[in-house]
């Protein structure tokens, strides 16, 4: 990395005769990050990312990775692959739990997808299915933090913030990172990166009269009055910054206030879905009994991405099925299948899928054996426990192979035996597709260089188109 990346603003001022007083620290660092982290000679395959986060842990065995061994022993006791000191509540009997619905080959590629996802099955040849995903923590909060930030303990910048930092925005009137229905601040925080890279939280409006971003409407009597207020606040803040010889956090706040003002002018029209065609609304399942909420979220994600937002995250929660997975999983699939497939079809129709990387995943998967928290429920009312050892995710567009399945688990569906992809590897691969070397996109904090992949991660070249 350039030495400029490791200089504080004060050291920059002291080392220059003319000074950098007219330049924001974030601008200097951002320019250096882009220059130094780019992969030499590579044309990025992806320009932007849409991350569809299935919070709670979807069951890979029921959706993408069925096992004959488990199906044939449904309801029978199987040997536990866990260490003897590991205890999972409600799984003492270790009964094999077969798939909730048939999982069949789809498309020309023969990709295995459940009957519960008929719309996704129709775009199977656009998907790169990863069946060897691996994480480190079996708890929701920690696993979610690791998936988003690379670590499960400390507060670190999220991957959206890192991508914003490395690439900047394509539209100065919009944030570079938006999180729709964010599952918590730590999943969209900028951490120690400049504040401008923090995700903007957005909530899907319940109707066309409700705005999805807090304070998006201009409360001033006119745009001119609002501009005067912003300018006055900016002058006062800048005077304090000059007295302090620089303050990165305050500079980020000034930039965010400017962005907020521009968003009040341009964003209300962008997030308005009332003028969308009937065909578009139907494609996403908007107006449907089950699919309306997530359909609106996915359509907003497409509109934001198309308008220049680098990283859009859409969280679809409710996948934590410890009990009655047979009754609950179809409901979740009904809510998400059409919106997700509609997004892929819409991106492809608009010519955006080639340079938009779409990622679908939960924080981990679920066990092949059943869980009965009551201890008395019949097996058809059982659920599944958490399983970070192996789970499924998929990617589409943005330079990955379509109609390609990578990774394999053992006969039980517990351990990855081929094609393992750790979270760090996934992050490294995403950055690579965006033209960024994950080892060189760093930020110096408390005396050491940090990066999204920490000291780990390898690009998964097998899935690159």
From TrEMBL:
It holds the Pfam family DUF1501. InterPro entries: Alkaline_phosphatase_core_sf, DUF1501, TAT_signal. SUPFAM superfamilies: Alkaline phosphatase-like (SSF53649). PROSITE patterns: TAT. PANTHER family: BLL7424 PROTEIN, DUF1501 DOMAIN-CONTAINING PROTEIN. This is Sulfatase. It comes from Anatilimnocola aggregata.
């Amino acid at each position: 990395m350039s030495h400029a990346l490791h200089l504080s603003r004060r050291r920059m001022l002291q080392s220059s005769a003319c000074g950098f007083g007219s330049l924001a620290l974030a601008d200097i660092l951002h320019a250096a990050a882009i220059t130094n982290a780019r992969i030499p000679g590579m044309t990025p395959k992806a320009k932007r990312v849409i991350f569809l986060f299935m919070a709670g842990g979807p069951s890979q065995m029921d959706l993408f990775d069925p096992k004959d061994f488990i199906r044939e022993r449904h309801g029978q006791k199987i040997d536990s692959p866990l260490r003897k000191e590991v205890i999972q509540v409600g799984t003492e009997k270790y009964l094999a739990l077969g798939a909730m619905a048939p999982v069949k080959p789809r498309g020309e590629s023969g990709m295995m997808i459940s009957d519960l996802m008929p719309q996704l099955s129709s775009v199977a040849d656009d998907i790169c299915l990863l069946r060897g995903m691996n994480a480190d923590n079996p708890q929701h909060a920690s696993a979610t933090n690791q998936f988003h930030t690379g670590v499960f303990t400390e507060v670190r910048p999220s991957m959206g913030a890192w991508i914003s930092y490395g690439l900047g925005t394509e539209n100065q009137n919009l944030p570079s990172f938006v999180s729709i229905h964010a599952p918590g601040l730590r999943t969209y925080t900028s951490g120690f990166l400049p504040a401008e890279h923090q995700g903007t939280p957005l909530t899907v409006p319940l109707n066309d009269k409700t705005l999805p971003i807090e304070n998006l409407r201009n409360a001033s009597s006119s745009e001119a009055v609002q501009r005067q207020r912003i300018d006055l606040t900016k002058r006062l803040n800048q005077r304090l910054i000059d007295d302090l010889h620089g303050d990165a956090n305050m500079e980020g706040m000034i930039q965010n206030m400017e962005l907020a003002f521009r968003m009040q002018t341009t964003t209300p029209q962008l997030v308005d879905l009332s003028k969308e065609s009937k065909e578009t609304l139907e494609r996403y399942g908007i107006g449907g009994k089950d699919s309306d909420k997530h359909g609106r979220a996915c359509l907003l994600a497409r509109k934001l991405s198309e308008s220049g937002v680098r990283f859009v995250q859409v969280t679809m929660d409710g996948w934590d099925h410890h009990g009655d997975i047979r009754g609950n999983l179809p409901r979740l699939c009904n809510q998400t299948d059409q919106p997700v497939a509609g997004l892929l079809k819409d991106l492809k129709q608009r010519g955006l899928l080639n340079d938009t990387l779409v990622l679908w995943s939960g924080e981990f998967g679920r066990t092949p054996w059943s869980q009965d928290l009551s201890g008395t429920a019949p097996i058809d009312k059982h659920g599944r426990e958490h399983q970070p050892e192996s789970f499924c995710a998929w990617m589409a567009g943005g330079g990955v192979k379509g109609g390609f399945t990578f990774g394999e688990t053992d006969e039980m569906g517990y351990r990855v035996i081929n094609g393992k992809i750790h979270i760090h590897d996934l992050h490294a691969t995403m950055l690579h597709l965006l033209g960024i070397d994950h080892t060189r996109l760093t930020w110096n904090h408390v005396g050491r260089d940090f990066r999204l992949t920490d000291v780990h991660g390898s690009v998964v070249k097998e899935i690159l188109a």
